[in-house]
């Protein structure tokens, strides 16, 4: 043998020539199914009719019955006492609230994309929820909320995950026993049960992940048989849509996209090495996949946001996250047109560009320290205390602050020296070499309002305008100050510092408004201001007026993505029940969902399922590593069809597990046990794959018996921990004995606290 | 270095597997010259590649390197940037005072040595950037000369690496010039900073490893062992210079793994041969470096025997090994009925109680016991005084009255005459933790709840409890919770003092307390003797490995903790493109400044070269997938095994920074920059050489057939490209030099002109907006 011959180019058979991997034959079917099929004389013809297995849907009718029974069991397990507890549980606080916002059409911002929340809202809406409940605290009793219907949606999606798992495994050429084994394991997984019984996003996420895996497997089977047929396109398009749905539930769906991406790259790499595929055909393969697996999900994702914006048309508590332009697209936030030209004597309001702190503001309260002069802050709402008048500092200033309005208009240009007079308190915007109250550092000066009626003011009131940039469409705005269009900086004439603000709040004495300082090392973005409203008595009523330019859908979409990203990255506070990824596969600790009246709901997995799946993952990695070493020493394991079959199957699931798990190690934000669920789904399927391999050479009856034993252990384990999944009453002794690991911190005494 | 070997088709030269006899690897450049485009070497090329020419070139480069590194090395005569730290550490070595730093000691020891050699007495403290050396009579030039020498010698090493890798003199000189005229390397090696040592050792490691690889056909020969051990030693020096030297270890580790993977192939070697190689490498590249690394720490501890600013970082046991340490001098045994104050180790608050009680109901609706408040308080106060009450019979006098490890005690709050107590009631702020309160002295109904066991940390049985040094956990006997506190204030009803509660994790690391002082001991007349002037105590000894382990863990923790933002910190993505530099030093009087920034042409050439390499490799992979062979096999082997190795060095020294959340600076990229200069040289060779190369370059094995030599030929293009590039680099180098050497001063317009990229934040720039 000359080993290098094979290694030159991995052989890939021509398309439509021979199946790449062994197809479903009798020995891959369950014995019962085989006997049944044979007795009807359908066996060969059934498969042979189309000549290939079209995926997971082509199963014997007896299996449909088995699946039906499993679904019934899943419904019973997931829906058992769904109305209990009748109060708010864990993150229902958030997602229930978002449903209320959708129904009332009030704008909000959340770190998750909208699909799952829209579905929950739909369930609530159909059953007549009016959006008036506030979901304020965990354990607050529900009033007039169809919360059972809202919970039923995730519960039903949890149920639907079970047959998908069954069909996926069948499509991956596992035996029926294996598929039953995996679907029952998933059915009796306490964590998935607990999570799917409440108004939470993870159940839809897991469902769509499972759906994607199923459709993608179907597509792969088609692709092995014959590409570009009608059903090939169907499976491919379904994969794309399903991917869009996953990523529209939670961004974790990106990991599913990565999994499918790896599979696609592998297919394309193999095709590239097949010299019988001409480049033109390869490009066709490439473009079809790019279209359906990249463009289609993006369109789906964007259309979800389209619906999101369509529903949320009114202003709400999420306004503050968005830019002013965005806010003006919400009804109730509009602004009348305002004069475009800013001149000496204009009454203006100034807004800070980089933060959503609001308007330059002053009010008749003094700083408690520093100069003890009047406070200057940023205030987010409209108010007459935001009004300032622009006064020329170089000409003689009238102590009354009134301007002789009969003079010709003098526009404000770059380099002009100004004073800003706060109209309601008759003081000037002022700065001096005194440290500000909160940002007490060398390079920051305090900004205050100083002066009194009949006082001309001093040189510390003088500010120099530096125009930073105008808008391209308004050429004038680069040369002189134009409302809304010009971004400018204000330099303090004497000390050279810039009027500045940042996301730092003043304490209670400043009503928690945002701090304004004068900064000598100002970050450019935080020292930019623009004028939002402008009024001048000498301007004729027909003078040019301006308003915000409203962003289109794409602008709104991109801005919201950015806000979601920064909010998500900012979720770094510790939570009492957060955990690091390394603890998940070991099931070291759960999450306390709800405690009330001596009952508790605590998210914890089924240890049997959980630890067996982790074991399967490790076993696969170890065996695969061992086989690679053996191959290096010249053993020819990878020419064995059985090894190849199971390696392909388990390898796919392993890559899925890996990509849904390891990226979490790179995340700094708070993480919870339920982030492991998509990875768990892959791990359980992988566990089934390993089961299929281990029992491959056993007689069907023995195989069935082993599966039955494992399933019974899992069910026993489920019922053992079920009181904290359902919030059923429990006894102290049972509770204490169920604490297998001391890190599982559910406690009879948390629920049954002694009261003094 | 040869992961691709299986993919390569070989032209009928696969030898039959024959036991243990040595076979030429086919991962090597071992190819008959038939497929190489043969051309006669031009006379110019032959002249340039002769030994004499090579020596002349390297001599010239080294000379220039010394000139550029030493030019005006005495300027500025002030403390610059991190000289604040590393200068100070040198003075600590000379004074033999213990200090703590996140970096291993090798490079700092060298500075200490250099300082001692030039007669620095260690009294200057390097307090602030801008402090004058001349006024303090510090021989700083001698100390700066050390990194300058090492930085200069890096240039010939780069040349040698390229030469050993089989490139022609022109290409080797090209790589060396990229380093020679690089402003960042020059600026970094003229000051008392660790990077010059790090880079010098790292390039020596790469050089030794390449020499080692070239002996692979004479395995286990003397030279083979010699170069391998040299690799290990230099690797250890790199690692011991600076924490990020560990990346060099990782890099060599990766290369060795690839190498071993290749040896594991059944067509190449028996298992016996494989294990021989494996253990040889384990000795040369794990055991030897580890020993060298430990040795530097041994020297570090041997030099630093006196108490110094680093004491407080260390454990009490460690501190007591230092002469003149406060713990060593003032630590006292505590006896029953002593009144003490108890301090939390992490947050430095004192255990405190006062008459005010917990409110009945908290804001979240939970209910308290309404007991007396126990809080953490930061300031001295008589309410911090607690008396240690025994729970067993005591003799009148003698050693039995000393409190010991695992004793069960009660703590009596002196001012209110109540005992410290905890019970199964949730604490005010954390529902999962237990509330701490007190109970009247005379009421014995809850005696059991006032019992606490004293767990001294790392103590043996019967060890006495000491003030200052006796770190302990206070574990409640009935409920097994540990007294704990953290940075969180109680509301106004407790005067915003810190919450103290019972942590259910009794082994919690942050639940560590110590006795700050023994306030009073009226029950025991012997106190004056104990706190009086004790005779000077001799430092205790401690096992070296324990000391090393403790210091190593602390270094890792503190390194990860360096997350505070710094105005000149930058994110790694900026580095290869040289988007930002660091302001090292400014002098406002003469508008002088030192700004660490590289030579723009050189850096961009390097990053382009890496992109070109990735492009070539990618295109080649795709083409071969379609059965097209655009590159002859020997050239591809050289690209993978040699340039690929350089790219590995570059990547391993660069990408891990993306995962670090600590402060990062552009000088962390300098080791990667060296590697990218090597890549740039070999890519230049590939572009100019028309697929010719110098072959063979490895040392021939005893049983191998000699093979036909081929030579690289760049023709006139080589020297022309080199001269053109050198000229451009030199011009830009000179242009930016005022920022590198900190002299002469520049006026606003000149500074603006030198701001080649808008992201460089130079000082003293003219305001562009003023007049406009």
From TrEMBL, chain A:
Recall the taxonomic lineage recorded for the source organism. Answer: Eukaryota, Fungi, Dikarya, Basidiomycota, Agaricomycotina
Q: Where is this region: Disordered?
A: 1-21
Q: What does this protein do?
A: Transfers mannose from Dol-P-mannose to Ser or Thr residues on proteins.
> What does the sequence similarity comment in the record state about its family?
Belongs to the glycosyltransferase 39 family.
As recorded in UniProt, its EC number(s) are 2.4.1.109
For this UniProt entry, the molecular function terms from Gene Ontology, in alphabetical order, are: dolichyl-phosphate-mannose-protein mannosyltransferase activity
Reply yes or no: does the keyword Repeat apply: yes
InterPro entries reported in the protein's UniProt record: ArnT-like_N, MIR_dom_sf, MIR_motif, PMT-like, PMT_4TMC
Q: Which Gene3D superfamilies match?
A: 2.80.10.50
- Cellular location(s): Endoplasmic reticulum membrane
Query: What's the protein here called?
Result: Dolichyl-phosphate-mannose--protein mannosyltransferase
Q: Which Pfam families match?
A: MIR, PMT, PMT_4TMC
Keyword entries, A-Z: Endoplasmic reticulum, Glycoprotein, Glycosyltransferase, Membrane, Repeat, Transferase, Transmembrane, Transmembrane helix
**Where does it primarily localize?**
endoplasmic reticulum
- What reaction is this protein's catalytic activity? a di-trans,poly-cis-dolichyl beta-D-mannosyl phosphate + L-threonyl-[protein] = 3-O-(alpha-D-mannosyl)-L-threonyl-[protein] + a di-trans,poly-cis-dolichyl phosphate + H(+); a di-trans,poly-cis-dolichyl beta-D-mannosyl phosphate + L-seryl-[protein] = 3-O-(alpha-D-mannosyl)-L-seryl-[protein] + a di-trans,poly-cis-dolichyl phosphate + H(+)
Tell me what organism the protein belongs to: Heliocybe sulcata
The MIR domain is annotated at 339-393, 409-468, 478-534
> Which residues are listed as membrane-spanning?
62-80, 149-169, 199-220, 232-265, 286-311, 609-629, 649-667, 673-694, 706-726
- Which GO CC terms are listed, alphabetically? dolichyl-phosphate-mannose-protein mannosyltransferase complex
What membrane topology is annotated for this entry? Multi-pass membrane protein
Biochemical pathway: Protein modification; protein glycosylation
From TrEMBL, chain B:
User: Which is an annotated Pfam family here?
Assistant: PMT
What Enzyme Commission number does this protein have? 2.4.1.109
Membrane-crossing residue ranges in chain numbering: 141-162, 169-186, 192-212, 224-241, 247-266, 278-299, 601-623, 644-661, 714-737
- Reading the lineage from the top rank, the first entry is Eukaryota
Report keywords, A-Z: Endoplasmic reticulum, Glycoprotein, Glycosyltransferase, Membrane, Repeat, Transferase, Transmembrane, Transmembrane helix
Q: Which InterPro entries match?
A: ArnT-like_N, MIR_dom_sf, MIR_motif, PMT-like, PMT_4TMC
Instruction: Map out region (Disordered) in residue numbers.
Output: 1-36
Q: How does it sit in the membrane?
A: Multi-pass membrane protein
Which pathway is this protein assigned to?
Protein modification; protein glycosylation
Localized where?
A: Endoplasmic reticulum membrane
Name the top EC class. transferase
The chemistry this enzyme catalyses reads: a di-trans,poly-cis-dolichyl beta-D-mannosyl phosphate + L-threonyl-[protein] = 3-O-(alpha-D-mannosyl)-L-threonyl-[protein] + a di-trans,poly-cis-dolichyl phosphate + H(+); a di-trans,poly-cis-dolichyl beta-D-mannosyl phosphate + L-seryl-[protein] = 3-O-(alpha-D-mannosyl)-L-seryl-[protein] + a di-trans,poly-cis-dolichyl phosphate + H(+)
**Example GO molecular function:** dolichyl-phosphate-mannose-protein mannosyltransferase activity
Task: Write down any Gene Ontology CC term.
Answer: endoplasmic reticulum membrane
Its annotated function is as follows: Transfers mannose from Dol-P-mannose to Ser or Thr residues on proteins.
Assigned protein family: Belongs to the glycosyltransferase 39 family.
Q: What is this protein called?
A: Dolichyl-phosphate-mannose--protein mannosyltransferase
Native organism:
Heliocybe sulcata
